[in-house]
Design a protein that fits this description.
The protein is built from 17 helices and 23 strands. It has about 550 residues and is of the alpha/beta class. The protein has a seven-stranded mixed sheet, sandwiched between helices. Strands 9-8-7-10-11 form a five-stranded parallel sheet, with helices on both faces. Strand 12, helix 12 and strand 13 form a beta-alpha-beta unit. The chain starts with 20 loop residues before the first helix and ends in a 9-residue tail after the last strand. It binds nicotinamide-adenine-dinucleotide. Nicotinamide-adenine-dinucleotide binds next to helix 9 and helix 10.
């Protein structure tokens, strides 16, 4: 008999309909709620269910208006790391959690998704104030967080089913298999970036939990308030208190200590290339060293990791492309959330004759000049602020270099009322001639788009691949042969044909890169959970050979 295995009718969470004024009214109410509940509050660590406000805290400013403090955040120290690990290690809850089936744990992810949905407007408003997202972008992220949790719950159940359906047992021989969490006891960590503070935290955390780990979650410094509310939502959904600790604090102390701790065996990290490289080296060293003076359960060197990092993403515009369609996608991909998406387009390669190139640059320049820049709370602004002073200065310097090298084509304008209030920079278009310049190679993570001309499609593909990253890429073309060549020759984790290159959707476009962009894991894909599990098989001889004598 053939058994059918499927992820039962997964539906993505629908986006809000922003044409209704009720939606905008709800957002205004939620902004007031965040201002009245969060501002001035010290957000604690959570270890074994206990909230701890630390003596040392740091504040989070609204990037659109730096005079506004969104809240204070407790900063964990190394003793807090030790305590959180001890809770995870010695807890009965943790043992019991690890012994449950994938399917049993999946229910908690669905309940957490429901909790996020209930707080939808709160999370939208919080992300607008804490990281400067537009309401649309923030709503998309809430949907993504819900999708990731519900999808991983479905995947967990699917893997349970696959286990039983894929094994044959013969008469006298019983074969069973199961997926087990990594590490004894299974302790995982999730270290995440600020630019998707809800979705990219909820997904890996949910994956670590559903695969049986006690998880320690360290959010990015810039988005720890969203992180705190997310951790609370998991706990409110019934995740046992020893199974999820929340440790806000500095990456270079708390994050590094968590990564290096010998008891931590599963690591979910998303962030910059530099930190990814450090974590990778640390795992390599650990996995090649036997530490004799540790207890047997910890001594053996195996850490597993899902490591996702940045990109230097590209769109190729072929000479027969529909410019009208391409323009919208280019602007959205390059300047949405001020270019602060890992998938953002930072290189545009235009092929064909110079006339086509000039026409495209002219149209793009008009579009860039027309993009209003200001706080996302005011609906008329399309481009918002950079995340913090450090990012502002880094991108501003890059823009100044382009200007002094006479590469600048055009910039947009920041509304003068807000120039000094927040970390606003205008979108910028820069013409490049050199693929190996620093600006063409480094991830800028801001609203700067470099444009290159390629004499033909061959050269365009060569240029597209001339980077250490391989995250997203797109091509606009009406030539089926070129489309096919782009698919087979461009090295990127996600390739988009005649559409924008940001906004991957769970279960439809599993997301993740190669080379320095990632180690091949696909967030929002059916196999993501496998990164955090080992597979075990049991074969039993069930033939009876006589009765034991009592
Ligand atoms: P980051 O690397 O500075 O920080 C990421 C996380 O790592 C933070 O929580 C930080 O506190 C922590 N951290 C910092 N130093 C650490 C250390 N030495 N050891 C352990 N942890 C440490 O990145 P960011 O600025 O928060 O995020 C932006 C980056 O993330 C960009 O490069 C972007 O492309 C990338 N990103 C990638 C994806 C993807 O799916 N591939 C998604 C979102 C963001």
């Amino acid at each position: 008999m053939t058994q059918t295995i499927s992820i039962s009718e997964f539906h993505n969470e629908p986006l809000l309909d922003f044409s209704h004024c009720e939606v905008w009214n709800n957002i205004q109410t939620a902004l007031c709620e965040v201002r009245s509940t969060t501002f001035g509050t010290i957000h604690p660590l959570i270890i074994g269910g206990e909230e701890k406000r630390t003596k040392i805290t740091f504040s989070r400013k609204n990037p659109s208006d730096v005079s506004e403090i969104v809240g204070f955040i407790s900063s964990a120290c190394l003793e807090d790391v030790t305590r959180a690990i001890a809770v995870a290690k010695n807890s009965r809850q943790a043992k019991e959690w690890a012994s449950r089936s994938l399917g049993e744990r999946a229910e908690y992810l669905r309940k957490t998704a429901d909790g996020i949905r209930e707080k939808r407007y709160f999370f939208i408003a919080l992300m607008m104030l804490e990281v400067g997202k537009s309401a649309h972008e923030a709503d998309g992220e809430v949907c993504e967080a819900i999708d990731l949790l519900r999808y991983y719950a479905d995947c967990a159940e699917l893997l349970d089913q696959l286990n039983s359906a894929s094994l044959r047992s013969l008469p006298g021989e019983k074969n069973t298999g199961r997926y087990i969490p990594i590490g004894v006891p299974p302790i995982g960590i999730s270290i995440q970036p600020w630019n998707f503070p809800l979705a990219i935290s909820a997904g890996p955390l949910g994956a670590g939990l559903v695969t049986g780990h006690a998880m320690i979650y360290k959010p990015a410094e810039q988005s720890s308030i969203t992180g705190y509310h997310l951790a609370k939502t998991f706990l409110d959904a019934g995740i046992p208190e020893d199974i999820l600790c929340f440790l806000s604090g500095e990456g270079e102390s708390v994050g590094r200590e968590l990564v290096r701790h010998p008891a931590v065996k599963a690591i979910a990290f998303t962030g910059s290339k530099a930190v990814r490289e450090e974590i990778e080296k640390s795992i390599f060293t650990f996995n090649h060293t036997l530490i004799h003076d540790l207890p047997p359960s910890e001594r053996f060197p195996k850490k597993a990791a899902a490591l996702e990092a940045g990109g230097k993403n590209v769109i190729i515009i072929d000479n027969d492309a529909d410019i009208d369609e391409a323009l919208v996608a280019i602007c959205d991909s390059a300047f949405g959330f001020s270019g602060q998406k890992c998938s953002a387009c930072s290189r545009l390669i235009v092929t064909g004759n110079r006339g086509f190139y000039s026409a495209l640059i002219e149209r793009l320049s008009e579009a860039v000049q027309d993009m209003p820049v200001g706080p996302p709370e005011m609906l008329k602004y399309i481009v918002g602020p950079l995340i913090d002073r450090c990012a502002y200065e880094r991108v501003a310097m890059c823009m100044a270099d382009a200007k002094s090298e006479k590469r600048l084509v055009v910039t947009g304008t920041v509304d003068p009322e807000y120039v000094k209030k927040g970390y606003f920079l205008p979108p910028m278009l820069v013409e490049e001639s050199n693929c190996s310049s620093l600006r063409s190679q480094k991830e800028i993570f801001g609203p700067l788009l470099s444009v290159f001309w390629a004499k033909d499609f061959d050269e365009a593909i060569r240029m597209a691949n001339d980077t250490e990253y391989a995250l997203t890429a797109g091509v606009y073309s009406r030539n089926p042969e070129h489309v096919q060549r782009a698919i087979s020759e461009i090295n990127a984790g996600n390739i988009y044909i005649n559409k924008k290159i940001t906004g991957a959707i769970v279960a439809r476009q599993p997301f993740g890169g190669h080379k320095m962009s990632g180690n091949g894991t696909k967030a929002g894909g059916w196999d993501y959970l496998l990164s955090f599990m080992d597979r075990q098989h049991i074969s039993e001889d069930t033939m009876r050979r006589g009765t034991p004598i009592e």
